Backbone:
């Protein structure tokens, strides 16, 4: 390590959607520390009081450079901080990565005064950026995988050659306090007092038109070594007091053989944890051993991205689900006392009052334990977003992209205001359709406390 190196600040400006440790920043912290750098991770979602201290230190020249992450709904918060840093420390290099920057790099650079944005996976570009900053250079666009504005304001970038992926490394868990994330746990469902997230794969082989994940990861699935994954779980349990794991992969069981290899190692060590899959798993990927391993590792709830029960809408958005088979699959989990959580989107192309009504009726008839529904937002990088921009149908205003509250444009027959009422109607009808759902919701309130549910209620209110 070079002497007197200033630390690199890695920042989450604030996340209006979830409260969870920023695993992407923690992984980058690991990458940079292996290169000999010092890092400091700031998450203003859970530690907003640290913002003033961070800005003061930046103004005093405490940091080598600052790296941000975020998706679309975070961009106004990132921009606010970037503008403050530019006023306080004009020469401080600023870098942004994540899905949003990868999807629309030039627009992002023109939206806020950054030095560069990362397009795609960030591990290798970030290492090169750190070296260039130390060498006193500023031609960041020459780094494969980065984009920047040239001396005359022209957009410049160097595509990365070949495979952009680096091995997925264990997050730098020493950089955050896990207990900061427990009071307002994302999703409002838990079984143990201390919960931590986990990533085992990156990427998703599907290509749903409403999803922007492919803008960073593509459709290739990249795996971690199963033994190293369970090593991390064991560390979290024994060293950090974690009792529950949230697997945050975009699609944990997309490669069923790999997912089972992780669970086999997990079961072999008998770590006495529980776990859930809040980001969703592929509903059609299962076999008898899969169910056995879920029970052996104490999985108590799985989530499915179902989106709608309209076959025409599923076809429109490229979601290849056999909805006729879904109720029986849900029953397979319920028969093993594993809860099921269905994710739905209202307002997809082709949506109307009839399709929403049918989806609500169908969902109520299934044995789903819980639901989560949101209004379609055309996230930059998704096919829906790209098509809408080309056709001039989208007011491309990032300051108004608020999760749950709907898009600045409608992509179906209903207005955003009408969709919001239907979303609330979905929740009411689902949870009042069976007494056991009200009981289950009460149980989750008892375990997680009121804060996560009050936050969700605020987001879906129509006032």
Residues:
């Amino acid at each position: 390590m070079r002497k007197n190196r200033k630390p690199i600040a890695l920042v989450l400006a604030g996340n209006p959607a979830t409260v969870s440790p920023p695993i992407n920043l923690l992984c980058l912290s690991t990458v940079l520390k292996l290169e000999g750098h010092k890092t400091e991770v700031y998450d203003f979602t859970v530690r907003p009081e640290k913002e003033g201290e961070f800005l003061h230190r930046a103004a005093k020249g405490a940091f080598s450079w600052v790296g941000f992450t975020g998706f679309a709904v975070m961009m106004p918060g990132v921009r606010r901080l970037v503008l403050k840093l530019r006023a306080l420390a004009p020469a401080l290099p600023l870098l942004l990565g994540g899905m949003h920057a990868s999807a629309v790099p030039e627009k992002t650079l023109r939206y806020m005064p950054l030095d560069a944005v990362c397009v795609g996976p960030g591990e290798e570009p970030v290492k090169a950026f750190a070296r260039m900053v130390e060498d006193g250079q500023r031609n960041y666009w020459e780094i494969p995988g980065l984009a920047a504005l040239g001396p005359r304001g022209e957009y410049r970038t160097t595509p990365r050659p070949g495979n952009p992926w680096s091995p997925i490394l264990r997050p730098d868990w020493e950089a955050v306090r896990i207990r900061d994330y427990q009071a307002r746990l994302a999703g409002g469902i838990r079984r143990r007092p201390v919960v931590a997230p986990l990533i085992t794969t990156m990427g998703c082989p599907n290509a749903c038109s409403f999803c922007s994940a492919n803008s960073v990861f593509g459709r290739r699935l990249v795996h971690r070594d199963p033994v190293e994954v369970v090593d991390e779980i064991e560390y979290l349990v024994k060293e950090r007091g974690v009792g529950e794991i949230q697997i945050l992969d975009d699609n944990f069981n997309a490669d069923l053989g790999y997912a089972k290899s992780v669970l086999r190692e997990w079961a072999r060590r008998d770590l006495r944890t529980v776990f859930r899959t809040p980001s969703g798993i592929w509903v059609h990927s299962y076999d008898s051993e899969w169910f056995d391993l879920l029970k052996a590792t104490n999985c108590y709830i799985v989530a499915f991205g179902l989106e709608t029960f309209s076959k025409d809408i599923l076809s429109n958005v490229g979601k290849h689900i056999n909805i006729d088979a879904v109720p029986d699959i849900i029953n397979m989990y319920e028969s093993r006392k594993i809860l099921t959580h269905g994710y739905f989107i209202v307002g997809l192309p082709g949506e109307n009052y009839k399709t929403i009504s049918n989806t609500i009726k169908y969902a109520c008839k299934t044995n789903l334990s819980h639901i989560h529904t949101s209004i379609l937002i055309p996230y930059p990088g998704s096919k829906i977003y790209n098509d809408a921009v080309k056709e001039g149908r989208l007011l491309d205003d990032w300051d108004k992209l608020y999760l749950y509250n709907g898009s600045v444009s409608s992509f179906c027959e209903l207005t955003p205001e009408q969709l919001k009422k239907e979303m609330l109607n979905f929740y009411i009808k689902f949870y009042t359709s069976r007494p056991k759902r009200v009981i289950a919701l009460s149980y989750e309130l008892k375990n997680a406390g009121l804060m996560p549910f009050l936050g969700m209620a605020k987001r879906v209110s129509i006032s």
